Known about the structure:
The protein is built from eight helices and 22 strands.
Amino acid sequence: MLFEISEKAEKEISKYSDDYEIYLELEKVLQLDAQKNDLSFAKEEINIGIGIRIISENKLGFAYSSDINKIEDVAKKAYLNSKLNEADENFCFAQNTKLDNVKNIYDPKFENLDVSEASEFLESILETCVENNCEPTSGSFAASLENNLITNSNGVSAFNKFTDFSAFVSINAEKNGEKSTAYDSISSCNFDLDGEKLANETCKVAKDSIGGVTVETKDTKVILDYRGAVGLLNTFVNAFNADNVQRGRSILKDKIGKPIVDTNISIYDDGTLEGGLNSSISDGEGVRTEKTCLVKDGILKGFIYDIYTAKKENSNKNTDDDIKSTANGFRGSYAGTPSVSPSNIIFDFKEQVDISEIENGFLATDVLGAHTANPISGDFSVEANNAFLIENGEISKPVKKAMISGNIFQVLSDCNGVKSELRQYGSFLIPKILFNNLRVVG
Length: 442
């Protein structure tokens, strides 16, 4: 279907330009939401759309529609929109290259998944929470299948097909008149989600958080659980975005070849990762995905680029080194144009410690307010959520209220991985992380 639509679009757009790109998207979605113990919302929908970009006289034009019967109008609008924009010699489209398969990103189980089976899965999560003497406040389950096709005038034809399954639960726990809350989520390209584990672990965190002690303000060892670490790492990874670097919005500008984090850390962006939530055979521009080393043993090695920022980099520098797209030109949907974005960010720690090795410290399951971190300097001050003291190598008392403050670039210069399961949350594939010197404010 998408290939037939693409052929029709090529005929229409070639009337206006010999330099074009067509992006087609077909998405099937199944979503369920629950309030307390009751299923409150369910939907199944199919979305389809087309986005067309053209380059005419070094000017870029773009238009899109969710009505595939209006391809002629979309092509014409893309051409007319190009007339309104400024010329830029850095505009170009992907070259035709061989694309490699990526394993374990599509689960055929989606094809037979219906509302009844999805409801049973979500209900089992809620029932497990009740069995743990916890009150579910909300929950959800979502499954999606996306097909997208990128073709262009350079001969690129990249077809991506992948699935995504996710579940979420939020609960209340109560004991002796005191309450606590907790929430968590899980995601996978395959319908292999362990809903019972999600419910049990979330309930345990909520029940363990009841009560709590106050803490004094001091610099101490702090373990951030997965969600807590991801909240702060988003600010850190934005500094690797080539667009931010070129606009002077990254503290890492001019630091290639210099140490920027602890020497036991290597960081990769890997769009080819088997089973990766953001893996695909190509990015949103049709560039073959790859594994890019960003940091090796603490040393900054490079940034992530889309086609435009890579060509702009080559235009601005005085060396013969040719910067190419790292296949990080992604789109939110057919209604948007590509921009630089990470795929699967892997934090590889050579050194990992066990909680039993920490005599005194602090653990935060989550942090609130990470979005307020300064995107350029890296300074942050966040509220610790579901936090605990670490005493004599064990997680002990819950903490009533505390803030954590510091600078993400500085604290990553002295940190370790924690011996724990490797999990993917959003773009990040990480263990729990120990920051050896963070300010905890009581």
